[in-house]
Design brief:
Layout (H helix, E strand, L loop, with lengths): L2 H31 L5 H8 L29 E4 L2 E4 L9 E7 L13 E3 L7 H5 L13 E6 L14 E3 L13 H14 L3 E4 L12 H15 L5 E8 L8 E8 L2 E4 L1 E6 L10 H18 L7 E4 L11 E8 L4 H21 L1
Parallel strand pairs: 3-9, 4-12, 5-7, 5-8, 8-13, 11-12
Antiparallel strand pairs: 1-2, 3-6, 9-10, 11-13
Helix pairs in contact: 1-2, 4-7, 6-7
């Protein structure tokens, strides 16, 4: 080999070594600087750096509460028609916060009524409430109330721990753990107050979620035909509010030292794209129930939600949709609110 070639080869090797040393230095420096993470996490971050230089964290730990794992079964999932166990067994699973909030309003629209009016209609509660109930209760011992659940499988947390697990799935076919249990609590209170009630057990959102409102409307019509005395139809749901940082919100009030889930009464309005001929009567009933709930149990209600929708409330003049808590409330909090709602509804039907 010629001397010049040897020099050239030596220079190439030397330059390669220099580049390698420089690369190691840059990697080490990047690892120590990335997001001020711990040494192990920073080193891992280097390997999650994207080709364009953007950092992709393995999993953000911001606002994640780490708690000791405990055995916790939350029923069954429904996924594509399959029942999947929701038992938590991973001791390293992340948890996220649950934040307790009060969504009742100190600003009353009229008397004890707070109103969220999303329509173009100007609500005059004094005029709407002066005549009392928009329907007549002849004999309360007959079946006056139908309770249904369009989304029967909506469920709640098992316990009030201030956090939920990443795998938490707030739906179950177990009627002892979903909104059906809330309906049972409402039904029990009505019966104790001598109000005739029937509670539909049909799960309209399982195995298919799509078309649930069509199926529940059919159920409602069948019961109205079977029991012509029915004046009130309550579709009981639970809400869901999750912030961008994965914090779930639970609207709560206190009754006799116990936490209960706040409720939101909904009623609709006739518009160019809805058919709701009895909407004004439904609004009257909603205002009466809202006022009674808040008068009997201060802090129980969120503002009444009045908007351009039907959600099957055009079934009759006493149909309402009521959200009882959110998926971050516990089942016991929601059931307690169901009991109180049944008492308030009894008061409206018997004394309005």
């Amino acid at each position: 080999m010629k001397f010049a070639d040897k020099i050239k080869k030596t220079l190439c090797i030397t330059m390669s070594l220099c580049i390698a040393v420089f690369a190691v230095f840059c990697v080490s420096k990047r690892a120590s600087d990335v997001l001020d993470l711990s040494t192990d996490t920073a080193l891992a971050a280097v390997f999650f750096t994207m080709p364009d230089g953007d950092f992709e964290s393995p999993k953000s730990k911001e606002n994640v509460v780490q708690k000791p794992k405990k055995s916790n079964s939350e029923g069954e999932k429904e996924q594509s028609g399959e029942k999947i166990s929701n038992t938590v067994v991973n001791t390293d699973e992340a948890t996220y916060p649950v934040e307790e909030i009060d969504l009742s309003s100190d600003t009353k629209f009229y008397d004890n009524i707070s109103l969220n009016n999303k329509t173009s209609y100007t609500v005059d509660p004094e005029v709407l409430l002066k005549d009392g109930l928009p329907f007549e209760i002849a004999d309360s011992r007959e079946v006056q109330v139908l309770i249904v659940h369009t989304h029967t499988c909506e469920s709640y947390l098992d316990s009030d721990d201030g956090y939920y697990y990443e795998s938490f799935y707030p739906r179950t076919t177990d009627n002892e753990k979903n909104v059906f249990a809330v309906g049972e609590a409402i039904s029990k209170s009505l019966k104790e107050n001598d109000i005739g009630v029937v509670h539909a057990k049909t799960q309209h959102d399982y195995p298919s979620y799509d078309g649930a409102y069509d199926r529940s409307f059919e159920t409602i019509q069948n019961y109205l035909e079977k029991y012509p005395s029915i004046k009130v139809v309550l579709d009981i749901h639970r809400d869901s509010m999750t912030q961008e940082n994965m914090t779930r919100l639970k609207p709560t009030f206190t009754y006799q030292g116990k936490k209960a889930a706040q409720i939101m009464i909904m009623t609709g309005h006739d518009s160019s794209y809805t058919y709701f001929p009895t909407w004004e009567d439904n609004l009257k009933f909603a205002l009466l129930l809202q006022n009674t709930c808040e008068s009997m149990y201060k802090g129980m209600t969120r503002p009444l939600n009045f908007g351009d929708f039907t959600y099957n409330m055009n079934a009759n003049s006493g149909s309402l949709l009521i959200e009882v808590g959110t998926d971050a409330n516990t089942l016991s909090e929601a059931v307690l609110s169901g009991e109180l709602l049944g008492n308030a509804l009894s008061e409206v039907l018997q004394n309005s």
